[in-house]
């Protein structure tokens, strides 16, 4: 009995190299394939959105625990609040990294929404990007992050973390001033052999940097679509 070569796979064969083209021939259609692709991208967007929320939840939970313990007794050291600031900053870094990954899949979903589905609903408006299929293909071939670390940090600070860190700052200032009225606040701010003026200076510089990252003008790469337009326009155009 002779072996048959009919089951052998040759990746260089023309029919194998064009297998992707056959998926969108006249019998199946690009729309059918893109519907499955879109469902997959939306699922990824939801997964990464949940991861962002989980990071925020942990940051708020730990911050609440630290605030409770810091003010439960006058004998508890004030620097536990500075530890809280450090921990929340670490969560900020984690969430910024997760936001960059989340934006990859969100941007793909938006490309499909605004160029395929929107055009299908109202072809008179045309597509947002005439080479959207090539753009999406390039991103599937070589996925790339769409926003920088700086922009991701600024986004998460504006949305969540600047408020959390501000609460901790106010709590720390209150802890070394009004909560310890019998001592000079610079003396209260001391940590071991580190003078209070040095501690206050480091904290002040840290928050100046945070404000700079949050509000310093920079070129946006994320679309920021929900920040555009007037909400009343939706009611007027219905």
TrEMBL record:
Top-level taxon of origin? Archaea
What residue stretch is flagged as signal peptide?
Answer: none
Q: Where does the record place Acidic residues bias? A: 1-10
Classification via InterPro entries: UCP01500
Ranges annotated as spanning the membrane: 78-96, 160-180, 192-216
Region listing for Disordered, in residue ranges: 1-22
- KW Transcription regulation (keyword) present: no
State the name under which the record lists this protein: DUF2270 domain-containing protein
Q: What is the lineage of its organism?
A: Archaea, Methanobacteriati, Methanobacteriota, Stenosarchaea group, Halobacteria
């Amino acid at each position: 009995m002779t072996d048959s070569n009919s089951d052998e796979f040759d990746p260089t064969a023309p029919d194998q190299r064009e297998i992707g083209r056959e998926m969108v021939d006249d019998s199946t259609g690009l729309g059918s394939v893109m519907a499955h692709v879109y469902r997959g991208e939306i699922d990824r967007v939801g997964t990464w959105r949940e991861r962002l929320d989980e990071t925020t939840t942990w940051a708020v939970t730990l911050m609440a625990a630290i605030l409770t313990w810091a003010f439960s007794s006058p004998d508890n050291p004030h620097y536990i609040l500075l530890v809280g600031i450090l921990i929340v900053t670490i969560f900020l870094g984690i969430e910024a990294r997760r936001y960059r990954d989340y934006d990859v899949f969100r941007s793909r979903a938006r490309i499909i929404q605004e160029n395929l589905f929107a055009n299908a609903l109202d072809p008179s408006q045309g597509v947002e990007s005439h080479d959207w299929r090539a753009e999406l293909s390039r991103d599937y071939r070589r996925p790339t992050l769409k926003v920088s670390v700086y922009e991701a940090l600024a986004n998460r600070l504006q949305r969540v973390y600047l408020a959390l860190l501000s609460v901790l700052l106010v709590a720390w200032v209150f802890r070394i001033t009004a909560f310890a009225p019998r001592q000079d606040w610079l003396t209260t701010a001391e940590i071991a052999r580190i003078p209070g003026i040095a501690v206050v200076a480091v904290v002040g510089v840290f928050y100046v940097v945070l404000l700079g990252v949050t509000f310093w003008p920079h070129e946006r790469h994320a679309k920021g679509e929900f920040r555009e337009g007037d909400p009343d326009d939706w009611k007027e155009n219905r």
